[in-house]
Amino acid sequence: MEKLALLSSKNSIIAVESVPNLSEYEVSKMMENIHTQAAQFRSIKKFYDDLQEIQNSNQRVKTLIDNIKSDQKNQSEFQNLSRLVAKYTYDFFDFVNFSEQFVVAHPIAKLKELLISYQYDNFYAYRLAYSLGNFVKHVEQLIPLNDFYDKDNYNIYISINQLKEIDKACSQKVKAVYEEKDKINLVNYLDTTLSCIQVQTMCITKQIFEDENAAEYFQSTDQFIANYGFPCKIVFDNLNGGKVNLKDNDITSLKIEIAKIVNKFKIADIKIQTKK
Predict the structure, then answer these.
(1) Across residues 219-224, what is the average pLDDT?
(2) Are 158 and 189 in contact (CB under 8 A)?
């Protein structure tokens, strides 16, 4: 058997009926609200955590690029670089697939059209990385690279000509991407793709926090908890008597993390790019 209750900041349990002018209906609705907001906050945190991991992967690739450039005879590191680029690319592919599924399921801000489709249409590196995600998953876990250097410059490229030779069974859509260019500078590829998913993370955070009313927590839910305590359920059984069910209590720690993310992104300043 379950019974609604309130948990104070001192972890004492307060019966709902003992609080003047507060009904079980109001407490129940607040619990639903907290459950919804916790899910919203977890979504923001997932996007941010995944972005952090991809940023770290991007930096590992760039560090290895710098090491190779500092010793151009160290060609043995090329295979390792190719493998790191493949991992980064698949992580990008996995991220944007999840991002697309999310914005399709949460269409308020039309981010599928105004953001994701815009990026795909306007950035070759984005189209290539998305195509290479399938390549890494189904064909080869090494991405072909080549280099060019003279007395002034040394650059590393993704060899799209080699990709076409390896990925002969690719779809017409992927083939069309491959045929756009012969090669792409690896650092430009890394910078562009990372920039795109940074923008996606910030815009999705803005959508969840503002358009889907996650900010409501700071305006009403937080005030409710300050006034009455945290709404919860006491679960009764024959062995243990009453036990507080706190499965939604993570909202308290989540709100601190989300506040930091929101402040870091300065979501009020984020503008969603519209198609030209």
Answers:
(1) 86
(2) yes
